[in-house]
User: What shape does this take?
Amino acid sequence: MGELFVKERQIVVPGDVLATGMDYLPAGGAYRDKEDVRSSVLGILGINGRVLRVIPLKSHYKPRPGDMVIAKISEMTNSVWFAELDSFRDGVLSLREVPEYVGDGDDLSQYYNFGDHVLAKIINVGRTNVGLTLKGPGLRKLHGGRLITINAAKVPRVIGKQGSMIGTIKDKTGCRMIVGQNGLVWIQGAPQHELVAIEAIKLIDEKGHLQGLTEVVGEFIDKKMKNVKVADSEEKAHVPVEKVSEPEEEKPKKKAVGNKNKKTVTRGKKK
Assistant: This one.
């Protein structure tokens, strides 16, 4: 009979013995070492029946087919858009994967321009790029609101079990929210309410290892919302998209020109 050595949501380090015996099964962030199940990363233990999973405290986003991501249009040719995913690979959005009809020779920037953010779905993952689609329920260009970047490993905590955490933030701030699996979060609401939602998400990003975090965040939002004037809730939501983590000046829009087989923008080196 197996024995469990750690508690759920306990922080573990690589090599820690989580359990012994064949009754327990390793999942992501864990591996079997003979009779033992050990952690392979620094993270928080999650237990689902007999399955042991370690959620990394910090990790780089690894794209998977089916993921919903928020991507930023960074480059384009006359037949394809390229988008940043905060990954080692760029996202690629082809003409057949957008809902609009794009005529032969059309300027692609009329549909999705440099700097635009889109909610997309990953359809395939290659060695050098990630295939994206905008064909599907809710997939679209994002207008207005604010964007905040969090650790991709904390996305499950921001969403919560059965959407409990994101539901709490939405209900208490009145904001619309979309959480991309790549760690980008889009928030839209009254300006002061957006700021409260952003502070709550930052709290989750920093304190994601704590137990009872949903209650902590709920109390935090209640306290912050007491200082928000009633008139603020009647203000219109932001029109420009603002990236909170990295504010920068808006660049002039560029148009895609040239033949179909040649990219119009020289791709820079990945940072």
About this structure: The first strand starts at residue 3 and ends at 4.
